[in-house]
Specification:
Layout lengths: L6 H12 L2 H5 L2 E9 L2 E4 L1 H14 L2 E11 L2 E10 L6 E10 L2 E8 L1
Parallel strand pairs: 1-6
Antiparallel strand pairs: 1-2, 3-4, 4-5, 5-6
Pfam family, one: SnoaL_2
Protein name: DUF4440 domain-containing protein
């Protein structure tokens, strides 16, 4: 069964497929925060650098497999397959929003 994502979340995962940091950063609010692997990236430029570094280190694909609403946030479980240690793995993408942009994204196991 396909997972129906909110527009900006769908755009985020579509941009992630292209490994284009400039496309991904367009999904985020100016002062957005990303937390990934215990590191925090604040603001679009830091988020762009985070994605640029990730896309040069590893090749991967993400398939959203579930979506839930938890404490006012959208939680998408994604199945990642790639050339990174521990592949494949399911990760939780926890999204909070400001207007029609991502205000916060936390990626956790």
């Amino acid at each position: 069964m396909p997972v129906h994502l909110p527009d900006v979340v769908r755009e985020y995962f579509e941009a992630d497929k292209t490994a284009n940091p400039d496309a991904i950063v367009q999904c985020f609010a100016e002062d957005a925060v990303v937390i990934d692997e215990g590191n925090t990236y604040t603001g679009r430029e830091a988020i762009r650098q985070w994605m640029a570094n990730a896309s040069t280190q590893y090749t991967y694909t993400v398939k959203p497999i579930t979506i839930a609403l938890e404490h006012g946030r959208i939680v998408v479980t994604g199945h990642l397959v790639g050339n990174f240690p521990g592949s494949p793995v399911d990760l939780r993408y926890i999204f909070a929003f400001a207007d029609d942009k991502i205000a916060k994204l936390e990626i956790v196991p």
